[in-house]
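Ticket 4471: requesting a sanity check on a complex prediction with zinc ion. Repro inputs:
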Amino acid sequence: MKKQKVLIDGNRLSRTLEEFADFGRTENNGVTRLALSEEDRKVRDYFCSCCKELGMTIQVDDMGNIYATLAGREKIPPIVMGSHMDTVKKGGRFDGILGVAAGLEVVRTLVENNIQPKIPIMIVNFTNEEGARFEPSMMSSGVLSGKFEKSLMLQKTDNEGTSFENALHAIGYAGDESARLKEATAFLELHIEQGPILERESLTVGVVECVLGMVCYEIEVTGESDHAGTTPMDMRKDAFFTANSLILDARQKLAGLHDELVFTMGRVNVFPNIHTVIPNKVVFSLEARHKDANVIKQVEEIIAGLATTKGIDGCTVQVKKLWDRNTVWFDESICDLLEQSTLSLGLPYKRMVSGAGHDAQFIASYIPTAMIFVPSVNGKSHCEEELTTWEDCEKGANILLETVLTMQST
Ligand SMILES: [Zn+2]
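Returned structure tokens:
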């Protein structure tokens, strides 16, 4: 006879998520809990007290990352679950915190079922994932992975001029470098999708294979300013009309490249931006994301070719690459494990990519890592309407539990 599966308590998980949302809950049932704020201190204290109740030990490193560990029967690097507890201003109740609360629920389930794991279980909270108060985002996982330099990050300031270092000390979470996460059997990050794909396809789970690589360019068009009333149309060097031709051309070519390519021209500045003056300069951004480096290469060729677009009208076009980042592929065998857990729970799922950045993409550089997505209602995130149903939160946590249990027995 097949053994009854151990499952998490969905009601307890939803209660916990609501308790966490009380730290910074907004009028419209969202959350404002900026990194290292008073709300962040309170939610950290509460999280630590929940973990201590379960007999877990707490460690805090020099970036304020919190690690709660449930001892294992053997001295093996832990299985780590978690995400971040900070939010953007007027963010939601699920982004980040779901991964932490679900980790807590998994440990609660183990403890209440008297399961002492062979491999230690750790829950992590990464400091300042959002970068909403101190840029850049994913700051502390970035320091752990060597992507960012600690001394530079400590000096970052918020709008009021408070440094990250001072804010970290002020809330009492400046720990020791020796506590940093160095090795682990696996890192599993459960997160809301923050997009509309799972919902559109009536799926419950996304097994995330990678975080998309991207390129970001700035395109500058230079023309000439003249009087808007006295200059005949065929004598103008209108930078805005030229930019318009470039944008149309780029849109057409990029759209034909690959159906999964996403691209955005999110920032446009027109100079001098006066209605009686022909624009002499337009600067706009063009960023594109795709998992396949070859597709990104083709994107770059298209961008480089923009200067030869028809309709330049005597203007000059300069293309400048601002930055790029490669696709981060998650660990194959961890993805397979998460997929098996999903299948064994009978949940509809697909393999997918993440268009957004997550702590997992940095941790993946030195620990076998993968992510699980659960659906975002209407795809909304980073806003107060952000919603993931309690049922989907519960399912996501059960995948974590199932995966942790499977890893214990192999
Ligand atoms: Zn997040």
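Notes from triage: The domain at 213-325 is CATH 3.30.70.360 (Alpha-Beta Plaits). Leaving this open until the requester confirms.
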